Input
Amino acid sequence: MKAMRRRIALPKHCVRNEARVLFRGSFRSVHSSSRRFARCGKGVRQRAQPNRRCVICVVGIGCLWLTSCATFSQHEFSQPTADWQTKTGQLMYRSSKATLIGEALVRFSKTGDFELTVSKGPGITLLSLRQDAAFAEVKGAFARQGWSGPVDQAPPQLRGWLALREQFIRAPDRKTLRCVSDNETFLFRF
Output
């Protein structure tokens, strides 16, 4: 019976000590416990510093890698000059999923450089396409995320747009140009 009382008394004693610390303002027990665990706290802090340094280094290297990829992997397109041919008109684009009618600005050179900008009113560019013999870049709201890379690695949904370059270079003086690629139809009127 005495052993049972001691077991019960021990938790009551601990509760009384905690209540004394909280309500009477005596912080001796808190202070002594912090002294007891001071060594553990210092060791933990010293181990955490190298981990923080590693994390900072890894994040820094990751940011440098991402920005270097963005800066060094861009392709240099030729800038339009006076000898490039420029056409303005309208484009009607149809596919099984969408229909688009917009203003079209087409520029191309004799060496095979090509630019197409499709807009809807002033200042709203729906699609911007730049292309040469080997590389292409597509941007704009109609292109969703955009894409850039070698023409032979283009995603299937952009292959019709990238085929337009050949049509314009082959027939540069046409007033109307119609191009059909799979389930897409492009109709230009200049």
Summary: Helices lie at 2-24, 28-36, 38-72, 159-162, 164-170. The first strand starts at residue 85 and ends at 94. The beta strands are 85-94, 99-108, 114-119, 125-131, 135-139, 147-150, 176-181, 184-189. The radius of gyration is 35 Å.
